[in-house]
Structures are given as structure tokens and as C-alpha cells.
Amino acid sequence: MTTLLQVENVTVRFGGLVALNNVSFTLNPGEIVGLIGPNGAGKTTLFSTLVGLVKPSEGRIVIEGERIDGKRPHQVARHGMTKTFQNVSLFPDMNVRDNVVVAALSHSNLADARRTADAALERLGLASIADAEVADLTFPQRALVEVARAMATRARILLLDEVMAALNPAEMDAVMDVLSSLRDEGLTLFVVEHHMRAIMRLCDRILALQFGGLIASGTPAEIAANPVVIEAYLGREKSKEA
Ligand SMILES: Nc1ncnc2c1ncn2[C@@H]1O[C@H](COP(=O)(O)OP(=O)(O)OP(=O)(O)O)[C@@H](O)[C@H]1O
Fold first, then answer.
1. For ligand 1, what atom is nearest to the CA of residue 45?
2. Please, what is the Cα angle at 167 between 163 and 170, to 5 degrees?
3. Which residue in 127, 158, 126, 162 sits closest to 144, CA to CA?
4. Which GO terms describe its cellular component (predicted)?
5. pTM of the full predicted structure?
6. Nearest C-alpha to atom 10 of ligand 1 is from which residue?
7. Model confidence over 31-63: pLDDT tens digits?
């Protein structure tokens, strides 16, 4: 399979703190990859680094043969990778369509941006609420509008940062069905979610971070059975739930 994104030996230091330590992995077209790890493991830093909000201290990030590390977020978006923003991405005073139009304006004039926005809303089953105010939406609708905004940038790699955080299990299942269908159409999703059930059900592959380093990578079943991951993360979650 052709590699879409290649992350090679990426290290990020904030002063003396090593937030990411020599991280390497690839993402392929049409897969959903989860990123897990305890609080402070470096998940947000990795997402921010991928989209150009944080510059790596060392390493290379390559999309289809072109280096994107050191580029700014709007340039990275033009290479096809964008990220949702945890809880803060939507403009509450604007309606759903305009929230998505704003994202599409990064590459289009207004008329094209409106068409792109309407197509994304239609694709995600949100056409009927295009004129609704964001403040009036349910949590699952908000989650899908965030995904629509990311899609409207024409990204092929969507980094989803806890878009399902506020959802109940049934709502999560509905959003996961939509995400799976986007994957089946060829989009690549890289997902941070604290709900382990969602991560395990949704992802084709999972990467586990601890103290800024990748400690494991594998299918959900492999990750769930990995003693290092259980010790670092799942064990704590299980003991929290108990
Ligand atoms: N801008 C920054 N300046 C200094 N230190 C930072 C900065 N951003 C993150 N860090 C530190 O880097 C480490 C990794 O943080 P990060 O937020 O990436 O972890 P995380 O896995 O996303 O955690 P959480 O699950 O709590 O969101 C932490 O020790 C954090 O305090």
C-alpha cells in the first residue's frame, strides 16, 4: 500500500522537556488509526506538530514524498492534512453552513466554498440543519459539524481530537458509523479519543504513546493484549472504572 504520511524520528522539546521523543510511524490511505496514551503522553503535541502549529526540534514529516515539517498550518492544509480543535473549533454565533464555509475558504472563493460546504454537510447527513445556529445543536451534531469543517478543507488526512468527548455510547456509535464510511471512501483518519471502547471499535490500527515515545503499535486486539500498554494506560483506565 502507498504510504500517505511518513513521520520519521520526530522529536519535540519545550525547553528542557522532551514532549515527543524520536517518534516514527506511517499512515496509509483509507485507514483509521487511533492514538492513545496517558495524560501528558504527547498526543496533543503530536497532532499540533503534524499540522504545523509546533515545529519539530528534529525529524521529518512527509506527505506523499513532500516534506511538510516547518510549514505553517495553512500550507500543511494545502498538502491535505488538517485537525479539529478540541471543543473550541466552532463559531457559536454562526450557523452550521457558515462554520463550514469558513473552512472551505482556505482554498476557494466564496461561491466554491459554499458548494464545498453544502457537499460536506450533505455527505454527513447535516443538510437539514445547515441554517441552524451552532448553539442549538446536539453534541453528536456538533461533532459531525467539526468533521464537516475538516472535510471542507479538502483534507485527505483528518486528525480528530476528541470529537466524541461529550457523546453517550449510542451517539458515539452513530458518529463512528459515519467515520467508518469516510474511511471506506478513502479518507485517512487519525484519532485521539479517551473512550477506549470507541477507539477499540473504530480503529484499524492503534499507536500508543508514553512519555513522548511510541511504546506500541498494532491492531486493537494486539494493543489490548500488549502488557506494556496495559501497564502504561489500559490498566489505569480499568482501575479507574473499577
Ligand atoms: N507549549 C508547551 N510548552 C511547554 N510544555 C508543553 C507545551 N505543550 C505541551 N507541553 C508538555 O508536553 C507534554 C506533553 O503534553 P501533551 O498535551 O501533548 O500530552 P497529551 O497526551 O495530549 O495529554 P492530555 O491527554 O492530557 O491532553 C506534557 O508534559 C506537557 O506539559
1. 18
2. 120
3. 126
4. plasma membrane
5. 0.89
6. 19
7. 999 999 999 999 999 999 999 999 999 999 999
Ligand 1 pocket check for 34: Cβ under 6 Å: no
* Rounded Cα gap, residues 123 and 160, in angstroms: 17
Taking CA atoms only, the protein residue closest to ligand 1 atom 5 is: 14
Domain ranges of the chain: 5-80+155-241, 92-152
> Out of 26-40, 141-155, 228-242, which region has the weakest mean confidence (pLDDT)?
228-242
* Helices of type H across 163-219: 169-184, 196-202
Asked whether 70 and 53 are in contact (CB, 8 A), the reply is no
Q: How far is the CA of 79 from the centre of ligand 1 (A)?
A: 26
Name the CATH topology of 5-80+155-241: Rossmann fold (3.40.50)
Asked whether the ipTM of the predicted complex exceeds the cut of 0.90, the reply is yes
187 with 110: CB under 8 angstroms?
A: no
Cβ of 19 below 6 Å from ligand 1: yes
> What CA–CA distance (Å, rounded) separates 191 from 202?
9
The CA distance from 142 to 146, in Å, is: 6
